[in-house]
Design goal:
Blueprint lengths: L1 H11 L34 E7 L3 H13 L6 E4 L7 E4 L4 E4 L9 E4 L9 E4 L7 E4 L12 E2 L4 H14 L1 H15 L8 E6 L2 E7 L4 E4 L5 H5 L2 E5 L11 E4 H11 L15 E2 L12 H12 L4 H8 L3 H13 L3 E2 L10 H12 L2 H5 L16 H4 L1 E3 L1
């Protein structure tokens, strides 16, 4: 019964989106062109990832093929590793309910491996913060999922992705406002702005504290049509029903989920320095982000030398650097960089995140997105068996 109550609670009303740690893994991007509304293109839509667990090779190939042929809705969907995904598709036939741990509020689910290269994955239900759908039939009678789908039905897959998009309204709204912040970067002066749409207050942006309050349950399209109204300094109060975020978080979300390349040109040919720890939650950083922070904490580098030192593909490297740039972590100005020696370098990292050894001993995944090693359940909210 604990599993039953979890699924209903966590798929009906998700709070502000929480990023999860990821891994150094090449992603299969399922992108496609359709007729979009006037003035829009694929770059205006967020690229969202779905992870799959428990499906065999033929089932995965079938789902990927269906998604690649679907018309765009509110996002471009791509398949990625479970730990780094915005939503999960789980094979219902491979699902088993487990008893709740003594200190856990909810039961856990075990998803059996669908391919020889995979391991079984245990989902810690009381920690999951992303939408989750099960393919039919669902094997365990103790699980009554809110979202289900027929893996062989394009209409059913399209419907469940549309439900995911509605659940991820917060992420999509932040993506839209993050895009506007990046596009208007040269306009961001110390001031207070109200984001208004047809007389309705959608956000309060304080560019003195860099804090932003956003109205919950707001259609992202309302932000697209909204006007920024400059207000007096005394108008910085955020309504009590708004949720709080900041400029770094919004721009990070846009950079990570956009198809656009918004890395400033100077970072392609000048030396890059670590300025400070990224001003986002550590759970937002993938292993490749952490790898770049570690390498730059040792010594500065150019884009070319970073590619050589890390082995990251160019597209992933530039995307990760873009995220770190908008998280106020990078600079091309030597005087703004942290010092090169290890003791001075660790201080800003330890101040924000704790022990640097904990940051850099990040657990990597294998090619199938299965977590390995100890201590991964709390961070990734799933466990390989």
């Amino acid at each position: 019964m604990a599993a039953r109550s979890f699924v209903e609670k966590n798929t009906l009303g998700l709070g502000p989106y929480t990023e999860q740690p990821g891994l150094l893994q090449r992603e299969l991007i399922l992108s496609y062109r359709v007729n979009l509304p006037s003035g829009h293109d694929d770059a205006d839509l967020p690229c969202l990832q779905f992870g799959m667990s428990g499906f065999d090779h033929s089932q995965r190939h079938q789902i990927e093929g269906i998604v690649s042929a679907l018309p765009l809705q509110a996002a471009v969907w791509r398949v990625g590793p479970m730990a780094n995904a915005d939503a999960w598709l789980v094979c219902g036939e491979k699902t088993r309910a487990l008893p709740a741990a003594p200190q856990a509020a909810q039961a856990s689910l075990r998803v059996l491996a669908g391919r020889p290269s995979e391991r079984a994955v245990t989902l810690s239900l009381d920690q999951i913060s992303r939408p989750l759908a099960f393919s039919l039939p669902v094997n365990s009678q103790d699980v009554e999922p809110r979202f289900t789908f027929e893996a062989a039905s394009p209409r059913s897959v399209q419907a469940v992705l549309a439900k995911f998009e509605r659940c991820l309204w917060s992420l999509r709204a932040k993506f839209t406002l993050g895009k506007q912040l990046i596009d208007r970067e040269t306009e961001l002066k110390p001031a207070v702005y109200h984001v208004m749409n047809d007389g309705k207050l959608l956000a309060v942006m304080n560019f003195m504290s860099w804090k932003i309050g956003m109205l919950p349950d707001t259609d992202p399209q309302q932000f697209e049509a909204a006007a920024w109204e400059k207000r007096p300094i005394g108008a910085s109060a955020v309504p009590s029903n708004f949720f709080i975020t900041n400029v770094s978080e919004l721009r990070w979300i846009y950079a990570r989920h956009s198809a656009r390349n918004v890395l400033p040109g100077r970072y392609r040919h000048e030396t890059i320095y670590l300025r400070q720890a990224p001003q986002v939650a550590i759970t937002w950083l993938t292993d490749s982000h952490l790898l770049l922070v570690r390498e730059l904490s040792k010594r500065p580098a150019t884009l070319t030398s970073l590619a050589e030192r890390t082995g990251l593909p160019y597209e992933q490297l530039t995307r990760d650097l873009t995220c770190l740039y908008f998280a106020a972590s990078l600079t091309t100005t030597p005087s703004k960089a942290v010092k090169a020696n290890a003791r001075r370098t660790q201080k800003p990292l330890q101040k924000r995140w704790g022990s640097p050894s904990h940051i850099f001993n990040s657990t990597l995944q294998d090619d199938d997105g299965v977590l390995q090693g100890e201590g991964t359940t709390v961070a990734a909210q799933l466990r390989a068996e």
